Amino acid sequence: MMKPIRLIIVAVGGQGNLLASKVLGDAAMRAGIPVVMSEIHGMAQRGGVVESALIFGNANSSIISDNEADILLGFEPSETLRALKKCHKNSCVITSMAPLPPFTVNIGKGKYPDLKNVKSLIQQKTARSFFLNATHLAQEAGNILSVNIVLLGALTATGMIPLSQKQMKDAIRNTVKKAFIDINLSAFELGAAAIA
User: What are the C-alpha distances in Å from 32 to residues 8, 18, 60, 79, 167?
Assistant: First the structure.
């Protein structure tokens, strides 16, 4: 019986969090690994937070409470910081450091956190952390919208999830629209290389 691995994914609406969850779910099913998923949608269509929880292995619930996440995958630094309470001292955090300031910051009603502070707080709270500019890598792959797949490549390369690069690439081929498969495979490889 596999010990559960708890993964939280946080993003801003439109960053492809749900597609990333779908790819992970598909890969896990192909690998014969039990997986449960749940999603929380904020004002996703307005750039609000979207959070997914995935548990690989045998689990009774798809809910991940505070201090329970083994891995936090963040598509946006301030959202990663906001979800940090889900982590424990042995957690691993993988986050893009390219900010997407919320509406409140853009209209001058809020202040975006200092990125050095974000990094420092993450490093203080968790055992392992990886910081990358997933937006830059997605552009390099050929589509800025492939940030989600860049981060899946990085996640897979850490060895923290029980899925191989081949299983993940097969799941990308199976889940992503045909026209975007090559770009997404390239994005996945760039994300994996950023960690290696």
Answer: 21, 21, 18, 31, 11
Cα distance between residue 102 and residue 12, in whole Å = 9
> What residues does 73 pair with on adjacent strands?
9, 94
């290696």: which residue's tokens? 196
Domain residue spans of the chain: 5-195
Query: Residue 189's pLDDT is what?
Result: 98
* Residue 173 burial (10 A CB sphere; 0-12, 13-18, 19+): middle
Local confidence band at 106 (pLDDT 50, 70, 90 cut-offs): low
Q: What is the pLDDT of residues 136-173, one digit of tens each?
A: 999 999 999 999 999 999 999 999 999 999 999 999 99
The number of residues in the chain equals 196
Q: How far is Cα 70 from Cα 183, in angstroms, rounded to an integer?
A: 29
Give the containing element (helix H, strand E) for 36. Answer: strand 35-41
Question: Domain 5-195: which CATH class?
Answer: alpha beta
